[in-house]
Design brief:
Two copies of one chain form a homodimer.
Chain A (H helix, E strand, L loop, with lengths): L3 E7 L13 H18 L4 H6 L2 E12 L8 E11 L4 E9 L4 E13 L5 E2 L3 H4 L5 E2 L17 E6 L15 H8 L3 H6 E10 L8 E10 L2 E8 L2 E12 L1
Parallel strand pairs in A: 3-7
Antiparallel strand pairs in A: 1-3, 2-5, 2-9, 3-4, 4-5, 5-6, 8-10, 9-12, 10-11, 11-12
Amino acid sequence: MTNTYTETYTIPYYDCDSEGLLKIPMLIKMMIRTSGNQSDSLGVGAELLKEFNVNWIITQHDLKISELPRTSDVVMVTTQAESYNKYFCYRRFWLHDSNKNELAFMESTFALMDVTTRKVHAVPDEVILPFQSEKIKRIKRGEKIPEMNETTIKRSFDVSFWDIDDNHHVNNATYPAWMMDSLGYDFLISHVPTRIIVKFNKEIRYGEAVESVVEEIKEQETIHQIKSNETLCAEGLIQWKKR
Amino acid sequence: MTNTYTETYTIPYYDCDSEGLLKIPMLIKMMIRTSGNQSDSLGVGAELLKEFNVNWIITQHDLKISELPRTSDVVMVTTQAESYNKYFCYRRFWLHDSNKNELAFMESTFALMDVTTRKVHAVPDEVILPFQSEKIKRIKRGEKIPEMNETTIKRSFDVSFWDIDDNHHVNNATYPAWMMDSLGYDFLISHVPTRIIVKFNKEIRYGEAVESVVEEIKEQETIHQIKSNETLCAEGLIQWKKR
């Protein structure tokens, strides 16, 4: 069992939707923050990454939600660098309420991007060894997202200044925000996701025009594509339940 | 001197822009959160407001910034309910760094909206007296925003699910986000606001198409309009300096 790292947060009202439930993009950001803070605590933060001219990017999230916390709730976020291979690092995140009930669990795949070439860079030992995570050979591909047959809904977005993160591209948490947003207020206010898979294929930069395409494949299941200039930049699958 | 109320926060990386400075909409949200928490601490929070079928809305912000905090900085937000008249409550906010240097100061005007009729409701004594703020007769109108002559830039936005707050309308902090966003990445990454005035005229609901219109009136000064269906919903003035 490798190191885990836990932080406690109080959910601010402004990270919640109009009904007081934590917004999904904020849940993902809160989780990712914990991994950044774990890196800092182990002395493998931004400064070391700069020496290699790299920064962390995310290639996949698989988030399972049993219950979303509400405004002012105190929650604990735990993360663990589970395993890694030459190019990919596999990380787990848990969200617990103050009584230690599990509210959500996410498995994410991280990689290092060369900041100049924008290409994936092999993971240096100096960056990964302090996490004491398991070195593996295989590449975990995660669940396959069904192919899209019929587009039922499309919505266009222009990248906003506020979407751009320190990698100078659209933050990973914006993609599920765009995916969900195309389903509209009435649906989102009456449903809540139980599972969200997002696979990232290509970064999106400022100035790009983005299309969020949706197909409902089952009663409570939607598949999603985020496209820029007809290029598939991310795909997703979301399972829903009634609020 | 009426009661003040202070809270300490650590700035999360995800509330900062690509260069690590706190995003303006997040600064405003952090400040407003403090006033909500002060209300809760005095027993005049959401439950009491529900008895009157009202909720707080904001009609004006005047924010002066000397320096923006960065990722992981520890800051203190202080608020004070300064004075009020029949319909409006005037509130002050301060942002300090951990050495008690003042980083920002905001004066905001609050009113109560009847949640059913969406009209302004007179401020009940039960809601305002616990703040021990001064009762005044006059209405503070704040600085006048120059009229717009020439539109240099226009950008369109669709209201997002994520913009809607517990008043079921676009959150006040989204308006300066739209105003600033229409100036584009290159400008925003090389400039930082020193003063932001926003005056709110009409609420915006989900499904509306919004236009953010800008005119540069001086070297480092822009004026802004947020319109929906040709109706002026908010106007703003922003003063800038080079980063």
